[in-house]
TrEMBL record:
It comes from Fomitopsis schrenkii (Brown rot fungus). This is Uncharacterized protein. The lineage of its organism: Eukaryota, Fungi, Dikarya, Basidiomycota, Agaricomycotina. Residues 166-179 have a biased composition (Basic and acidic residues). It comes from the Eukaryota. Residues 181-190 have a biased composition (Acidic residues). Residues 144-190 are annotated as: Disordered.
Amino acid sequence: MALKLGQDLSVLAGCTRLSTVALHVQANPMDSWQGLVTGLCKIFSHFSSPVIRSIQVEMQLKEPDDALFALAHPDSEFWTIDLGLIHDLMKRPMFDSLQDVTIDIPRYSTDVRLARDAVLTAEETNRRLCLILEPWDKRGILTVRGDDEPTDEELGQEADMNSSNSKKEDPSGGVKGEEALSPEDEAVPA
């Protein structure tokens, strides 16, 4: 099942005999860690099957195509997130039959980070996911997989690549709104 955070999740509430759940979730990195926690809370609160044995969530961080993307949240925001609600949801008796949970945040794009002032390694991403999902981690049923976030250098390389690709695709050489100069119009140094 594919979901976007913010989408109606009532379909999950109607599935009372699910034993295995595999979700592909698309999250906007603009929402940062708080958005991920809120999204996971919404997903977990809609489960209604008391026989769930396995949950697999692949979370793709992707800004909307029509959005002007800018990271708004500092890394310190993570440490202020109240994890009480998500932990309470995870401790509900409904999840007692749960035997394994896998949360995967693969790096689909080199231009996505969750904070404007930090570059997280895969280990730090995994550690934070374990803190968010601590009740299941303590039960020994949690597997998390995150990737290294892109460095500033990688972000610059991605921007350069995108810029050069757009120039290759644009017959005017990237000139927009003006007439491109013909070879005869070019100045030749003497």
